[in-house]
Amino acid sequence: MPQILALFGPTGVGKTAVAIAVAQRLQARGETPVAVSADALQVYRGLEVLTGAADSAERSVLEHRMVSILDVAERFSVAEYARLAHEEIDGILEGGGTPIVVGGTGLYLRAALAELDLKPPPAPGVREALMTELEMQGASVMHARLADRAPEIAKVIDQGDRHRIVRALELHAQGALDAVPPTTSQLWTSDTRHPTRLIALTMDREALKRRIGERVDAMVEAGAADEVRRANAHGASETARKALGFAELLAGDVDAMKTRTRQYARRQLTWLRKLPSPPVETIDITGRGADDVAAEILGG
């Protein structure tokens, strides 16, 4: 019997609403659900609107852990996230609760549910130097450098993926980069720490595109740009600045935020469609209400 329910899917698909609808049904059965966010950016206080974290009304219905726990100036890593998320999940289970892990896709979802084979952090100054070179020379030049040093790794990294290019070059500088890509992705595993039901929420691409546009407009209306300006003035860390829309809203370009978010969601959908079924259950929620989806998940 699964102990954990994991709900994941692309940004803007409506994961929080479905999690709350599921929680209300579990509460009616006498269970105690608790949400655990599997989001790298929702950990920051002061970026709740920008990152789509559950608001106070939603959190009054369903308790959310791993949300708004760090000052925006602090750096954060997946290793730190994994340790904290495991503590939260284990504590919920020990207390007789039902963890609902809610996230996008990829590394932080796996970090919440499984054990990661983590590479070492960069030596002091290495990342900063590489980022400076990236800004001066561009991602394509840095990717060409990676291709020269680790051609098999470069083949699986997009030429525009600045973060992964820099990380690979960091690892190469430390002698910690694999010669060839690993046979299993760090973005996915069905080998979880506790019995887990894995549910991927998907949506028609055009419907999701419209939802994202509406969502970004709602975020801006709710003060996301003000959040970004305050975070910037407060010395937001490099990690916090990776939030979707941070750079775009700082520059006052809402359309660019919509474009970047839609591109990210497309990549998430592509990744989701490659996941094995079983163990992943895929539910298309296009045109459906959260309670209808929750009823399907819980069997009525």
Give the key terms.
14 helices; alpha/beta; Rossmann fold; 6-stranded parallel beta sheet
Description:
By secondary structure, the protein is an alpha/beta fold. 49% of the residues lie in helices and 10% in strands. It contains 14 helices and six strands. It has helices at 15-28, 48-51, 56-61, 78-94, 107-113, 126-137, 139-149, 151-155, 162-173, 205-221, 224-233, 246-250, 254-272, 290-298; strands spanning 4-8, 33-38, 64-65, 98-103, 196-202, 280-284. The protein has a six-stranded parallel sheet with strand order 3-2-4-1-5-6, sandwiched between helices. The radius of gyration is 19 Å and the shape is globular. 36% of the residues are buried. The mean pLDDT is 90.
Percent in strands:
5-15%
- Please state the overall shape, judged from the principal axes of the Cα atoms: globular
Distance between the termini: 18 Å
Strand order of the largest sheet: 3-2-4-1-5-6
Question: Going by CATH, what is the homologous superfamily of the largest domain?
Answer: P-loop containing nucleotide triphosphate hydrolases
- The oligomeric state of the chains shown is single chain
Number of β-strand runs: 6
The number of distinct helices, counting runs of at least 4 residues, comes to: 14
CATH class group of the largest domain: Alpha Beta
Query: What class do helices, strands and sheet pairing give?
Result: alpha/beta
CATH-assigned fold name of the largest domain: Rossmann fold
Write the H/E string, N to C.
EHEHHEHEHHHHHEHHHHEH
Number of domains: 2
Helix content: 40-55%
Rg of Cα set: 19 Å
Q: Biggest sheet, open or closed, and with what strands and sense?
A: 6 strands, parallel
